Amino acid sequence: MTERQFPKWSELKPLLRAKPIELDPTTRRLDRALSILDLRRAAKRRTPRSVFDYTDGAADAEISLRRARTLFRNLELRPSILQDVSAVDTTTTMLGRPAAVPFSFAPTGFTRLMHHEGESAVVRVAGRRGIPYALSTMGTTSIEDVAAASPEARKWFQLYVWKDRAAGEDLMARAKAAGYEALQLTVDVPVAGARLRDVRNGFSIPPALTVKTVLDAGMHPAWWMNLLTTKPLTFASLSAWDGTVAELLDQLFDPSMTLADLEWLRASWDGPLIIKGIQTVEDARRVVEAGADAVVLSNHGGRQLDRAPVPLRLLPDVAEAVDGRAELWMDTGILTGADIVAALALGADATMVGRAYLYGLMAGGERGVDRAAEILTREVARTMALLGVSSVDELGPQHVRLP
After folding, report:
1. So where's the catalytic machinery, residue-wise (predicted)?
2. Is 276 among the annotated ligand-binding positions?
């Protein structure tokens, strides 16, 4: 029979360690977030439904996005044991220059709707952490203001080709004058995808004060207060817009653009050129032969053509076809550092993340973006160590098995 005794105070005292009380609600919220999905849940609580759904949603039935995330979930990581991983190096190169981690912050539209600090918050985190950042044509902070927010950050400008080519030339000239390192041409938006969540929510730019949105304001007073009491939304590339996102894209963007138009673009931009939105091996070859410095396998986060190819599935074949003639990056579906490591092992030189840092932005502004970057960086380093590799260059197809 087990003998029992009451513990003495001297034995209990070392176990009673009071946790400091954190008074700042944003700090409490971010400290509880241990993963990007935790940040997503916090973001959903903090922002109006239409804004959250604009970020979180995809096109049509959202099959492309689900397939991308399902492939990441179902792949198998294959570790090599008894390797020296006492020091793990997450650095890599992007466009021939060092990057602290093997991912960049992807361009996202209307970012100040997610949080009033918007693109300025993102680029400040990028500058501190050595992460390249691409400003979207549809961003809500000007090219010049983003440059001023973090002079030390590596900044790229993402371009959609407009029907008004003179406007595109002006954007490239402004980006060059402001010190942007590279141009990222997005090629998978000849017309807007059918983003049904936005239609059902009546999502518009700027948000319209309807009965529905007024009721929603009662659930998210801080978001609405920040929107209404800070600087009015301005755009990286146009003065104003009053309508839906799809209407804006269809009004501005040129569906007649072809590969031959890269000559027009090169006449205005002589720096590194990134082509984003490649979804076949054949198109990867074409844009590399046309002079792309980097190719991004992407289906726009599932936001354009539903049932599009899954970029991760394409990686090995495209890596073989490109054969080092250009850098190969990928996005779509990335929510963990393990996802990033898997992409690198299958042939990507680097990756891009969008929703991941936007969830952080919605959850806690600049501190939330920093938390997202911290989570991903730690997950990348931990996954590499558990796989038995100490540098990005050691990753290879032997470390991943796709279903």
Report:
1. 300 (proton acceptor)
2. yes
Per-residue pLDDT of 105-132, as tens digits, reads 999 998 999 999 999 999 999 999 999 9
What would be the CATH architecture of the domain defined by 51-77+90-401?
Answer: Alpha-Beta Barrel (3.20)
Q: Please give the pLDDT value at position 128.
A: 98
Phi, psi of 170 (to 5 degrees): -65, -40
Tokens describing residue 45: 């609580």
| Calpha distance 126→132 (Å, rounded) | 6
- Tokens coding 251: 């009004």
Q: What is the pLDDT of residues 137-192, one digit of tens each?
A: 989 999 999 999 999 999 999 998 878 788 889 999 999 999 999 999 999 998 88
Question: Is the Cβ–Cβ distance between 348 and 100 less than 8 Å?
Answer: no
Residue 398: both structure tokens together: 């032997």
300 in catalytic set: yes
291 is in an annotated binding site: no
Residues in CB range of 260: below 8 A, 6 or more apart: none
For 240, 320, 346, 403, the CA distances from 400, given in Å and listed in that order, are 46, 17, 7, 10
Pairing of strands 273-278, 294-297: parallel
